[in-house]
Amino acid sequence: MRQAYDAIVVGAGHNGLVNASYLAKAGKKTLLLEQNEVVGGAAITEELLPGFHFTTFSYAISLLRPDIVQDLNLVQHGLMILPMPRTFQPGYDGNYLLLGSDAEDNYHEIARHSLEDAEGYRELSFRIKQVCHALHPIMDSIPPNIQSQDPSEVAAVEALKTYLEGLPPEVSGMIKRFYECSAAEILDDYLQSDLLKAMIASSGIIGSHCSPLSKESGIVWLFHKLGEYDGQLGEWGFHKNGNGGFTQVVARAFQSFGGEIRTNAPVSRVLYGDTGTTGVELMDGEVIDANIVVSALDPRQTFRKMVEPSDLPADLIASIDAYQFRGTAAKVNFALSGLPKFPGLDDSEKIFDGFTNIGPSIRYLEEAFKDSQSGRFSRRPFIDCCIQSLIDPSMSPPGKHVMSCFVMYCPSQLSNSDWEAEKTPLGDTVQETLEEFFPGFSKLVIHREVVTPKDIQSRTGLSQGDIFAGQLFSSQLFTHRPAPGWNQYRTPIKGYYQCGSGTHPGGCVSGGPGKLAARQILGDCSTQSI
Amino acid sequence: MPKRTPFHDCIAPYNETEIWKRWSGYLVPPNLQYSIDTEYYAIRNSVSLLDTSPLFKYRFCGPDAVDILSSSMVRPIHQLAIGRAQYNIWCDDYGFVVQDGVLLRLAENEFFLTAGEAALRWFRQVARRCNLEAESVSDVSDQYGILALQGPHAFSVISQFDKDSALASLSYFGVAQIEIASRQVIVSRTGYTGDLGYEIWIPSIDAATVWRAIIEAGSGYNLTPIGTTALKMSRVEAGLLLMDVDFSSSRFMFGPSEKETPNELGFHWMLKNLDSDNREFIGRHAIEKEILSGSSRWTTIGLTVDPQSYVDRFQSAGLIPEKGNVYCESTHSLYRRSGQPWDYAGYATSFLYSSLLKQPIAIGKLPSDLATPGTQVDLEIEVARRPELVTATVSRMPFFNPSRKTQVFSKQEVKDASGV
Q1: Is the Cβ pair B252, A105 closer than 8 Å?
Q2: Domain containing A52 — which CATH number?
Q3: Which residues of chain B have a CB within 8 Å of the CB of A133?
Q4: Residue A209 structural domain
Q5: Are A348 and A400 part of one and the same domain?
C-alpha cells in the first residue's frame, strides 16, 4: 500500500530540517527525504579518520534565527553553540592582529597599528550593529511580492518603504552604502590599516564571486554580519561537534514532533496534476503521496529538475536560468598532530580559539580574485581557518586537532584543467600558504581532505558548488530571491513550495528560509488555499 | 592583554586587596585598602593620591588648534586664557553630548585635553570637515601619566616643590609648569573630587621618580594612595557627572532616549552667552532649536534623600539602615507625588550614602516641572528585597563645596591650607 503524508520535504539540509520540524510541530504528518546516508546537507560532520571529526563543508554558525531555537525546543535536543571569541589575522614580518570580544582590548590591539583606526573600528562596528538591528525584522518576515497587485502586497511594499524611510539617516545612509559600494570603499571611510581592512573585508567575499573592490562585496559583508551570538550582533559561534552536530539536533527535534526521516532516498521528481501537487517519486520508482511537497533544494533543482520546466511560466524559468550560481570556494580539512605556531606568539591556544584569517592585505585578496577570473584557483588563496577541536575536544584525539580551511577563490569551472587534476595541487597550495604564515605547519599534517567545488556539487547537490544556493548579490536577495514574484516560498504549482537557501533570507545556517516557508505553507493551509 | 599605567609598579605594593579592574583597558585598583572609607576620608580629611592615567590624553598644537577646538567645543575657547583650564563638552550634529573633558591651555596654540573615551578620530574628522590640519591633534595618552593629588593638604604637599611660587598664587582651574624631583611636570588646579586639589601631568618615563617624590612629600600629611571607588564617591558629593553612569556618549547609543543634550545634562550655564558669540560649533543649531522650542525632555539635578525617611524604611522592615559604602551606579526610579501610586517621573543614578553629609544623595533626571530646587519626589530603593519609596528633595549641586577648593594661597598661608 502506498504511504501517504500531509507533507513531504525534499532534502534534509538545515533548511529542510527546520521547515519539516515546523510542519510536524503544527500537526502535519511530515516525511523528510534525504538522498545521502546522513541528514544535514552541507552541514554535516564526518569522522573521516578514526577519532578525527571533520566539518566537511559548512563550519560555523551565526545567522541562526533565535526564534527557531525557541520554537523547535532545540536546547532540549542538545543545542550547544560555543563562542569563537577571537579572530587572528597574521600579516608579514611578524605583524598580526588578534581581536577578541572585549572592546577595550581591541582598541589597544588596533592602536598598535593605527590610533585612529582603533576608534574608527568601534565606530564602524557600531554603525553595522545599528544597520543589523534595523534589518532583523526584515530577515524574519516574508518579503513582499513586488509583482502582485493584491492590496495586501501593495500595502506591504508601502509599509516597508515607510519603515526604511523612518530609520535614522546615519542608518539608512549606511544601508545604502552596503547596497551600492564595495567593502573596500566603505572601509576607507573608517580605517587606514590595510591589515585591519583586509581582515574585515574578508566577510565581503566569503563564498562570493567578487573581490573586496567589487561593488557586490558590500552586501555580502553586511549579510555575514546579520547574525549574532547571544545578542552580540555579528558574532559567530561553533556548534558542538560542528554544524553536523547542529543538524542532528534539528533532526531530533523533528522526530520529537512525530516527523519521519528517510535517508538514502533520492527523489527523482515531484508529482502534480491539475489539482496541484500529489506527491513525489523516488529514484527507485517508489511513489509517496502528499498534497504538500517542499523543495529544500536550490532554485535550479526546484524549478528545473524536480518538475517539468515547460509546466511553469516562461518568465520564471528565464529568471531561474539567469539566477547566478557561482562556485567560488573549496574546503581543505586537515588532521594535525599539534597546534600550528605563529612566530613571536607563543600562546597558540589564544590564536586559534576563533577564526584565523589568511589574507593580509586588500591587494592579496584582489590578486587572489584575479586568478579566479582567469579560470584558475588562487595561487595565494584567502583561507578562513578554524581549529574546532581546540574548542570541542571530542572532535579529535587528545593533543591532536582538526583544522577546517575554507579556501578561495576556487572557481567551479577551470579554464585549462579540471578539478580531478587540480585537487592535489590545491591541497598543496593551501598547505604552502599556511606554511608561509605558520612555519612548520606541513610537519603537523597527519591527513588532508580536499573538497573541491565539484565535490560540493556532487555531494550536496548545490549547483556549481555555490555554498549559498545562489550568490548573495543584491539582485538576488529579498524580493528577488530566487525570482521576482516567486520570492514567497510558493511555486506556480499548488502545494509545491521552496524552502532552501535560494529563498529569503538566503545562505548560511540561518534556518530563516525553512522557518518562513513553513509560515507561508501553514498560512495557506489555514486559509484553505491548499 | 590589559595594559599597565606608568605608575603600575609604584601602586602595586600599596594594593593590599590585590584586586585590579580595567579602566579603558588599563589595570587600576578599585580600592587599595579593605576600608574604602579610609580612602574616601583621605580625600576629605588629609590628602589622597590617585593614578588617572587611563584617561585619553590629546594635544592640540599649531595654527589650527584653536579653530578645531572652537568648531567642536560647546564653551568658547577664546575665553580660555593661557595658563588656564576649562571643563568643556562636545556634541554631535543633533546636539547630543558626545563627551566631556578638561582642556588645558599651555600656550596660544597648544592645548591638552583629557577624555573618558577615545576622541582622536573624532577631532581629526572635525578638522577634515572644516578643512583644517588633522595632524594638529595628536594622542599623547602613552607619553604622560596623570596623578590626582586631592584633599585639604594637597597644597601642603605640592607646595614643597614650588620653588618659584607658581602654585601659591594658582587659582582654581589655573595651570602651571613646575619641577618635581627635577622632572618637568604640568600642574592644573583641577580635580574630580570637588576638593582642594591638583592634577599633575607627568612624562611617562619620569612617573616612578615623581611618584616617589610626592609620596615622600606627603609623609607628614597622611597622604594616602587611593583607588577609583573613593574617587567616584567623592565626585557625587561634588556633583560631577560620570560618563557611562550619569550619561552616555551619543556616539555609541542606539536611540534618542539614551542620548542627552547639554540642557538635559544640566549644562545650561555653558549656553548662557550663546547669543553673543557666533561660533559654528557642532550641534549649535540643534541646541538653539531645542532652547527655542523648549523641547528638552528633562534636566539633571541633585537629589538629597530625607535621612529620617531613609532610616525608617529599614527600621520598619526590622533591618539596620544601609549606610557605609553605599555607592550605587545602577538606576533608581523616581516617582511624582501626584496621589497616584508609582507615577513614574524619571530616574536617579549615582546613589551615595554620603558619610560626610550623613544622608543619601543622588544625581537625578526629572522633567522641568519637577526640577526646581525644593521639589519633593519619591525615590525607589530596595529594602529587604522589596521596593520601597523614600522622600527625595531636588537640590542644587554640588552637595559639598568647601571654600578651600577655590581658596587662593599666599606663601605664608601654606601651613593653614587645610582649613575648610
Answers
A1: no
A2: 3.90.660.20
A3: 254
A4: 103-227
A5: yes
Residue B129 forms contact with A (CB below 8 Å): no
Q: How confident is residue B418, by pLDDT bands cut at 50, 70 and 90?
A: very low
Cβ contacts of B57 on chain A, cutoff 8 Å: none
Domains of chain B: 8-55+142-237 (3.30.1360.120), 299-395 (2.40.30.110)
| A252 occurs within a structural domain | no
What separation in angstroms does the CA of B323 have from each of A188, B226, B314?
53, 21, 11
Same domain, A300 and A333: no
Q: Do residue B120 and residue A133 have CB atoms under 8 angstroms apart?
A: no
| CA-based nearest residue in chain A for residue B24 | A104
The reply to whether residue A118 touches residue B2, judged by beta carbons under 8 angstroms, is no
Give the number of other Cβ atoms within 10 Å of residue B393's Cβ.
Answer: 15
Are residues B251 and A120, on separate chains, in Cβ contact within 8 Å?
no
> Is residue A435 located within the same domain as residue A478?
no
User: What are the mean pLDDT values of chain A's consecutive 10-residue runs (530 residues total)?
Assistant: 88 98 98 98 96 96 95 97 94 94 95 98 97 95 95 96 94 96 98 98 97 97 93 91 97 98 98 96 97 98 97 97 97 97 87 94 98 97 96 95 98 95 98 97 97 97 96 95 97 98 96 98 88
Which positions in chain A touch B126 (Cβ < 8 Å)?
none
Chain A residues with CB within 8 Å of chain B CB:
104-105, 107-108, 115-116, 118-120, 122-123, 126, 130, 133
Asked whether residue A493 is domain-assigned, the answer is yes
Does the beta carbon of B128 lie under 8 angstroms from any beta carbon of chain A? no
Residues A417 and A368 in one domain: yes
Is B139 in Cβ contact with A105 (below 8 Å)? no
Same domain, yes or no, for A373 and A478? Answer: no
Is there a single domain that holds both residue A90 and residue A109?
no
Q: Can you spell out the DSSP letters for A37-106?
A: SSSBTT--EEEEETTEEEE-S---B----HHHHHHTTTTTTT--EEE--EEEEE-STT-EEEE-S-HHHH
| Pairwise CB contact (< 8 Å): A108 & B3 | yes
3-state DSSP assignment of residue A439: coil
262-281 in B: which are within 8 Å (CB) of A? none
Nearest to B93 by CA among B248, B254, B288, B265: B288
Q: CATH no. for residue A491?
A: 3.50.50.60
Does residue A330 sit in the same domain as residue A457? yes
User: Across the interface, do B24 and A118 touch by the CB < 8 Å criterion?
Assistant: no
DSSP B312-379: HHHHHTT-PPP-TT-EE-S-EEEEE-SSSTTEEEEEEEEEEEETTTTEEEEEEEE-GGG-STT-EEEE
Q: Please tell me whether residues A199 and A146 are part of one structural domain.
A: yes
Residue A135 covered by a domain:
yes
State the complex-level ipTM: 0.93
